[in-house]
Design a protein that fits this description.
Blueprint: E1 2-4, H1 12-23, E2 28-30, E3 37-41, H2 45-55, E4 65-67, H3 71-74, H4 83-92, E5 97-102, H5 106-111, E6 117-121, H6 126-135, E7 139-143, E8 145-146, E9 152-153, H7 157-164, E10 170-173, E11 183-186, E12 193-196
Parallel strand pairs: 1-10, 2-10, 4-6, 5-11
Antiparallel strand pairs: 2-3, 3-7, 4-7, 5-6, 8-9, 11-12
Amino acid sequence: MLLKIYDDNPNPKHIQQAVEIVRKGGVIIYPTDTVYGIGCDITNHKAIERVCQIRGLKVEKSNLSFICYDLTSISNYTKPFDTALFRVLKKALPGPFTFIFNASGQVPKLLSSKKKTVGIRIPDNNIVREIVKELGNPIVTSSIHDEDDIIEYSTDPELIYEKYRDVVDLVIDGGYGGNIPSTIVDVTSGEFEIVREGKGDLNDYI
């Protein structure tokens, strides 16, 4: 199914429709503030396996991130961090960053892996944040991109739908997506270590 939702004013009925699909174990493709993502409910292991299968990943080796609604909700999945880091996160999020934290004991159970770290996204996109808010817990996320040597992220939701319609339960058309992924920042040591330069510039917030 292809469902049009507007980022500036998401229709609550459409958000609810997407939430019901996720809640029943569905896999969805949705817009973020960077590239389109593919994801599911973090509490549904079969759905996580489907996401990994579609992306050609092994669950135990995958670097899946969680999309959270706000900073309050990330504390369930990360080990405590200091006030200085919190201040930067408060300024940078919602935004085009993936922050890698030391994972709380919850994460390995959810992902059935021995992962000690977790990537957290709070995108500046009302559609996916409203879905997460209504769902009541984060969704697992991975970006979708075309399989060629140069990673070309799919930007046209109708073309994304054509490609993925048989393997996912819902594609949300939130308009054209970007083709620059999020900036990945590792904060596990207490310092800010840029793992991948992307759309976000952390210097604006430090």
